[in-house]
């Protein structure tokens, strides 16, 4: 018991340190696969020793505290994280849990999306105009980055049409396309400046700048993947149709977003995107499956840090991926 407690405390401390480097300083010191491995170890230990569970554990929290240099923005609805699965077996278990909670025997439909590797943002539109943008921060409070977001060309300052709700919060990912990332690092190297470790950190570092003129020079882009607060009637009955409405107002939605039936459909989607991963213009670290029907999402609800109705299916880290593909080609 004492041993488990000591292990849990050590893992929490280590993960807190990594969180700070990743979320606050935009400068991780370990690969995501290592972070994910330690997090799973912590979750397994906490599940085996429920009396040691603690709401302040990194396993129960979202992101990192907002930095005080930016104005604080309270999210009307929390911005959560995603649970994840790493294998077909874990995906099957995810579907089984869903079906049993919903008391269903027939497969549900999922909205399948690429898991963009950038930074989550919340965009508030009032009467069709962008009035506020914020980071996720710790999930309840984010950093106000409105001026920086205004410099991103993919994000409309004014929505098209006139049938949008008076207040609409759009959520999505700001990311740096691979070509822009390579060119930016190349230019930095030529000048002897610091280079970014990967496009995710480059996007986060570029967006969380105190001077929006610096952000404006960075090749940032954006796809939306959901909504937060919507004043008035819901936009649609399903997540997929919600995204289509956003698209109609000029908000970019990834062309890779597709509706698929049950776990088999998700698995096919995963294989297809994994195969084409290197041809995409941006980095992704997996795909996301979301129960498509909003009434079912509501029935399923949330746990501490993530919705029960969605999961990320993470791709193997690149070095692990090479091994996996080699094995696949041999059979
Ligand atoms: P996450 O990456 O596990 O999942 C949630 C995030 O996915 C959302 O906030 C959103 O930004 C993003 N996302 C991308 N596409 C999406 C889509 N289509 N729909 C919904 N969300 C989408 O996020 P997290 O909670 O920020 O971070 C945990 C992960 O971050 C870890 O698993 C690890 O890989 C990495 N991390 C690494 C370190 C490190 O030191 N290397 C430290 C902390 C976190």
From TrEMBL:
Coiled coil: 1-55
Species: Oceanisphaera marina
Span within the parent record: 1 to 331 of 677
Catalytic residues (UniProt): 115
Job description of the protein: DNA ligase that catalyzes the formation of phosphodiester linkages between 5'-phosphoryl and 3'-hydroxyl groups in double-stranded DNA using NAD as a coenzyme and as the energy source for the reaction. It is essential for DNA replication and repair of damaged DNA.
Signal peptide annotation: none
Superkingdom per UniProt: Bacteria
This protein's name: DNA ligase
Family according to the record: Belongs to the NAD-dependent DNA ligase family. LigA subfamily.
UniProt lineage: Bacteria, Pseudomonadati, Pseudomonadota, Gammaproteobacteria, Aeromonadales
Entry binding sites for NAD(+): 32-36, 81-82, 113, 136, 173, 290, 314
Parts of the chain that traverse the membrane: none
């Amino acid at each position: 018991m004492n041993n488990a407690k000591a292990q849990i405390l050590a893992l929490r401390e280590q993960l807190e340190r990594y969180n700070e480097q990743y979320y606050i300083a935009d400068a991780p010191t370990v690969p995501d696969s290592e972070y994910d491995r330690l997090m799973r170890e912590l979750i397994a230990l906490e599940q085996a020793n429920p009396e040691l569970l603690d709401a302040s554990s990194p396993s129960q929290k979202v992101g990192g505290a907002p930095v005080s240099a930016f104005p604080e923005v309270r999210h009307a609805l929390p911005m959560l994280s995603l649970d994840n699965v790493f294998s077909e077996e874990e995906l099957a278990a995810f579907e089984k849990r869903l079906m049993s909670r919903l008391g269903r025997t027939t497969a549900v439909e999922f909205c399948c999306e690429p898991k963009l590797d950038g930074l989550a943002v919340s965009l508030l539109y009032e009467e069709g105009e962008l009035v506020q943008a914020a980071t996720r921060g710790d999930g309840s409070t984010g950093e106000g980055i409105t001026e920086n977001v205004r410099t991103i060309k993919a994000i409309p300052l004014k929505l098209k049409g006139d049938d949008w709700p008076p207040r609409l919060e759009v959520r999505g990912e700001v990311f740096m396309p691979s070509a822009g990332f390579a060119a930016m690092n190349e230019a930095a190297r030529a000048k002897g400046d610091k280079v970014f470790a990967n496009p995710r950190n480059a996007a986060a570092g570029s967006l969380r700048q105190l001077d929006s003129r610096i952000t404006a020079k960075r090749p940032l882009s954006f796809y939306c993947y959901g909504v937060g607060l919507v004043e008035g009637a819901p936009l649609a009955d399903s997540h997929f149709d919600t995204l289509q409405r956003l698209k109609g107002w000029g908000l970019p939605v990834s062309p890779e977003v597709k509706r698929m039936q049950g776990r088999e459909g998700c698995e096919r989607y995963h294989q297809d995107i994994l195969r084409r991963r290197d041809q995409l213009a941006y980095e992704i670290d997996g795909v996301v499956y979301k129960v498509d029907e909003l009434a079912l999402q509501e029935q399923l609800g949330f746990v501490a840090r993530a919705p029960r109705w969605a999961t990320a299916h993470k791709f193997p880290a690149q070095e692990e991926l090479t091994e996996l593909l080699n094995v696949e080609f041999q059979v």
